[in-house]
Automatic annotation (TrEMBL):
GO terms for biological process: defense response to virus; innate immune response; ribosome biogenesis. Pfam families: RIO1. It comes from Certhia brachydactyla. Interacts with CASP10. Interacts with IRF3; RIOK3 probably mediates the interaction of TBK1 with IRF3. Associated with 40S pre-ribosomal particles. Residues 1-20, 124-161, 496-515 are annotated as: Disordered. The gene is Riok3. It is found in: Cytoplasm. This is Serine/threonine-protein kinase RIO3. SUPFAM superfamilies: Protein kinase-like (PK-like) (SSF56112). Residues 1-18 have a biased composition (Low complexity). Residues 137-148 have a biased composition (Basic and acidic residues).
Amino acid sequence: MDSVGVAAAAPDAGPGPAWQSKCPWGAPSTTSISCSLADVMSEQLAKELQLEEENAAFPEVVAAAEGPFITGENIDTSSDLMLAQMLQMEFDREYDAQLRREEKKINGDSKVSISFENYRKVHPYDSDSSEDEVDWQDTRHDPYRADKPTTTPRRGFIGKGKDITTKHDEVVCGRKNTARMENFAPEFQVGDGIGMDLKLSNQVFNALKQHAYSEERRSARLHEKKEHSTAEKAVDPKTRLLLYKMVNSGMLETITGCISTGKESVVFHAYGGNATEDKVIPPECAIKVFKTTLNEFKNRDKYIKDDYRFKDRFSKLNPRKIIRMWAEKEMHNLTRMQNAGIPCPQVVILKKHVLVMSFIGQDQVPAPKLKDVTLSSEDMKKAYYQILNMMQQLYRECNLVHADLSEYNMLWHDGKVWLIDVSQSVEPTHPHGLEFLFRDCRNVSQFFQKGGVAEALNERELFNAVSGLNITADNEVDFQAEIEALEKMNEDHVQNHGKKLSTFSSDGDPPIYDE
Ligand code: ADP
Ligand code: MG
């Protein structure tokens, strides 16, 4: 059985009348939670709600102690589905290789070539690769890549003079058609005609081919439906195969288990594998898998849709690709931070919706979040100044606003604070960039004021210190109004000049434009 799948299946949802736990829609909620828009977007609230949900429906996924999730030798052999997928992948590769050989043999020098492309076993692992994604960043040979299309042969006949045989010859054609039946999907019964000298007319062959093809599609569709329904909470088979390939290629040594399951992502711990020519793999890695179920991403649209870096692409993308874009965004943002020297995970590789980065922590134990660690007052003060500094660097050097900064996304490791979770980070000139910054400032300010750091600036002072703006309003309402006015001014510039301000200025200085 699929171990993660089992964990994902909701057990009885706690105490309550029997009819409630049996109800397919779950127990009706009796508590109604009212909160502001800012709270809705806050990770803190999301985490709390999610924790309740998870405790009820998802109790055993964090199972690092149960042994490795994927290793080179033992690839989750407890999962029948996984094993079947692995075998299927091997089989598909052989099948495709055979298909290509057949294709070459049959086409030979013929003028008109026949393509077996439609019979290729497009494995789910390969099926939705797209050109616009950042993919494997190495250049090693990919065994899944199709051969170059064969060029049109010059001759369409063999023999000479009266012995000439063209490709239209009935006997040759019939035999070829029979041989081609071998390439129908394996579950399609073709009888033992292949062993005889059977000659199939083109008409019969085409009808058979059509039928085999639609049968194959039908079974693929059924299969896919099943996959999607089980992929709700845990990692779906496609993702598992992706992870498997990372282990199989030697890039990762072992994927030991899950360290976090959130609404939008699942994070695993892994031991790094062999370095390649251009890549050093850290000894321990974190693998962030962005969930491919779309529901949770709906209310994140505004972070990416309005980010001009991704704007043009957003409208053309399907939801699956949008999720990959979150992973891509996290990669780009981490890289910027790394370049500025901000302590954060180092990007190892991005593959579709899976981001591999260095692990912050040691021996499979992730560094604690700031919210979970008890610091001495000295360390607390040190952490505060470090964060103030990092926020300024992020804004000025990386041109970024974290947009989900709180004690939940800061880890304490090696006596300092590390920033994580930057998939939603935006540039300050994002239409809501300054509002996001203000929210970040409020979280940081409140955390350290509550934590007894007397020097901690209040949220408005912190906002000005980070952004270099000089908003003078002495109450939150007016302060926010000024922030929104600045954002609007920037948007008006975009409307009128097609250009964004590259930085904001409230000192009456002329605005600075992007080149
Ligand atoms: P989410 O969007 O689910 O909040 P995060 O990036 O915050 O995703 O990751 C969730 C949790 O996984 C973090 O709180 C942290 O405990 C752990 N985590 C994420 N990245 C790393 C990393 N590079 N090293 C160690 N732990 C990590
Ligand atoms: Mg987080």
